[in-house]
Amino acid sequence: MVAHPTRDRRAERREATRAEILDAAWELARIHGLAGISLREVARRIGIQPPTLYWYFDSKNAIYDAMFAEANRQLLQLIAEQEWPTEPREMLRMAARVWVAFSTEDVARYQLMFQRSIPDFEPSPEAYAVALEILQTMRVDFAAAGISDPAHLDLWTAVVAGLAAQQTSNQPGGDRWLRLTDEAADMFADHVLGTTTQESQR
């Protein structure tokens, strides 16, 4: 007889409720902004009493922390799902497209991940570890493309973050700055990698 592991149904229900709470918090953030999340309204949306929320999250910042970790896991998964080109310039173009598109498709998520929108919120070490994993993945991929100088990586993050900030601030839902990702990636490549042989022969 094959022994089947015993399911912890209470833990499963708790995780399911935590996921509902986070979904409700994201919905409110997209309507009212991150600072507009109300624990009372989160509780109302999922049909529980406000004090019950504290059994799942001990504070509003704990909800922000879980949201921060969830958002970074989404980006990490997106990066892992890509078929990354081996040619450095094509890799940079694709990296710019992926990063800027992810940042601009959900303004609330972008603000929580990349801006200090909540003055008294600081991610926990556990949540921030996911963000550090993304940075380490980027360092490894860029090193394989011949880009390992920390200053070049800082410049890269400034370029793509600038495009995302312009798009979310000035034309949310549009593509004015999204359309510039390839050009920005090529400018960066020209500066860091130099022009290719083919381009120098033009």
From TrEMBL:
Keywords: DNA-binding, Transcription, Transcription regulation. It comes from Candidatus Amunia macphersoniae. PANTHER family: HTH-TYPE TRANSCRIPTIONAL REGULATOR BETI (PTHR30055:SF234), HTH-TYPE TRANSCRIPTIONAL REGULATOR RUTR (PTHR30055). The keyword Transcription applies. InterPro entries: DNA-bd_HTH_TetR-type_CS, Homeodomain-like_sf, HTH-type_TetR-like_transc_reg, HTH_TetR, Tet_transcr_reg_TetR-rel_C_sf. GO terms for molecular function: DNA-binding transcription factor activity; transcription cis-regulatory region binding. This is TetR/AcrR family transcriptional regulator. Pfam families: TetR_N. Residues 38-57 bind DNA. PROSITE patterns: HTH_TETR_1, HTH_TETR_2. Residues 15-75 form the HTH tetR-type domain.
